[in-house]
TrEMBL record:
It comes from Apostasia shenzhenica. Keywords: Membrane, Metal-binding, Transmembrane, Transmembrane helix, Zinc, Zinc-finger. The chain crosses the membrane at residues 89-109. PANTHER family: OS05G0489500 PROTEIN (PTHR33680:SF1), OS07G0190500 PROTEIN (PTHR33680). PROSITE patterns: ZF_GRF. This is GRF-type domain-containing protein. Residues 21-64 form the GRF-type domain. One of its GO terms (molecular function) is zinc ion binding. The keyword Transmembrane applies. It holds the Pfam family Zn_ribbon_GRF.
Amino acid sequence: MSSSYSYSSPNLNPANFHLQCECNRACGLYTCRKEGENQGRRFFRCQRYKTKDDCGFFKWADDTVHTTVDLKYQLMAQDARNKAEFQRLYNFLKFISAVVVFSAVWNIFYH
């Protein structure tokens, strides 16, 4: 069963936040593309990132808004990440179990 939640109030949208970094410049809003628990999560950072003038500012977009809808979305996203991690570990455990059984059978019949 798949559900999706959205909200339309413009003041709750992280894209409408105008954060300034330590450089007193408007921060850029980006989406994490790196695989892992934060994949798809949005964040603000200094637009001078990886330059000599980078001030190092970083803030998750979901840390800037704390509403019931946002918290519900965060919990649903965390639940989805937990389920994916559980499935990954379960599949790994099945693989390791198969290797152990194969190894035991191999040792019984061929040694």
